[in-house]
Amino acid sequence: MSSTRSDAAVGSGGSSPGAHTERVLVVEDEPALLRALEINLRARGYQVSSSADGQAALAEAARRPPDAVLLDLGLPDMDGNEVIRRLRAWTAVPVLVLSGRAGSGDKIGALDSGADDYVTKPFSMEELLARLRALLRRDAQPSSRQVFTIGHCTIDLVAKSVTRRLDNDAAPDGAEPVRLTKTEWRMLEILLRSPGQLVSSGRLLSELWGPGAEDRTYYLRFHMAGLRRKLEDDPPRPSHLLTEPGMGYRYQS
């Protein structure tokens, strides 16, 4: 049976000090976990709506568009990937998947359906909340951002240039150009256009080499190694161009 709850139905006794303006839609059919998520989100000032199945979640999202969605894949009436696809037909709202499916195929399937991030059950509530904050920050960033920083390097997407700041006595304020291959540049641009967002390997392979390249993940490893070598201050321990094992890559500012 469809069910949807909102703050108005639960009644929180008024707004808490420093309450967020963001509304989070939680889609989860396990009552105990749903309640724990509601409590933790409200304790941090978020406005919360909740649904126990996909149809109710889609109706609630259309009625009161959320700023983020926490979505379980194993829903009683439809697969969570279908919920994502239907959402993506009309909204770019950040979707963070919560699932007991730990296989890389399940993760890739959710990401290719349009999810922004993926957390495997059981998970740390603090990690979940940190990922939610990162998605909300990313979504709030102006889409016109064109200049990014990775370590000592500055990337200008309009000028299509990369420069590295020189910290030495001979040229304390100087900079030198960094030359990227065509593929490195395209890969970097895709990641920078989605700051903080997990970009699936499938999406990168499809955009860079077209259909049929989805199994050639070694291409990505090769070119990512080149980008890190040229841009990161410590390539073996990157701080900005991050790998999500079995899923893809992300740019973290």
Task: Tell me the layout of helices and strands.
Layout: E1 4-6, H1 7-10, E2 23-27, H2 31-43, E3 47-51, H3 54-63, E4 68-72, H4 80-88, E5 95-99, H5 104-113, E6 117-120, H6 125-140, E7 147-150, E8 153-156, E9 161-165, E10 175-177, H7 182-192, E11 199-200, H8 201-209, H9 217-231, E12 241-244, E13 248-251
Parallel strand pairs: 2-3, 2-4, 4-5, 5-6
Antiparallel strand pairs: 1-3, 7-8, 8-9, 9-10, 11-13, 12-13
Total domains, how many?
2
CATH superfamily of the largest domain: Response regulator
What kind of assembly state do the chains in view correspond to?
single chain
State the helical fraction. Answer: 25-40%
**Rounded mean pLDDT score:** 84
Relative strand content: 15-25%
| Discrete helix count | 9
CATH class of the largest domain: Alpha Beta
Unreliable sequence segments: 6-18
What's the overall geometry?
globular
The ordered string of helix (H) and strand (E) elements is EHEHEHEHEHEHEEEEHEHHEE
Kindly identify the CATH topology of the largest domain: Rossmann fold
The biggest sheet amounts to: 6 strands, mixed
Give the C-alpha Rg. Answer: 20 Å
User: Strands across the major sheet, in which order?
Assistant: 1-3-2-4-5-6
Structural class of the secondary elements? alpha/beta
CATH architecture heading of the largest domain: 3-Layer(aba) Sandwich
> How many strands appear in the DSSP assignment?
13
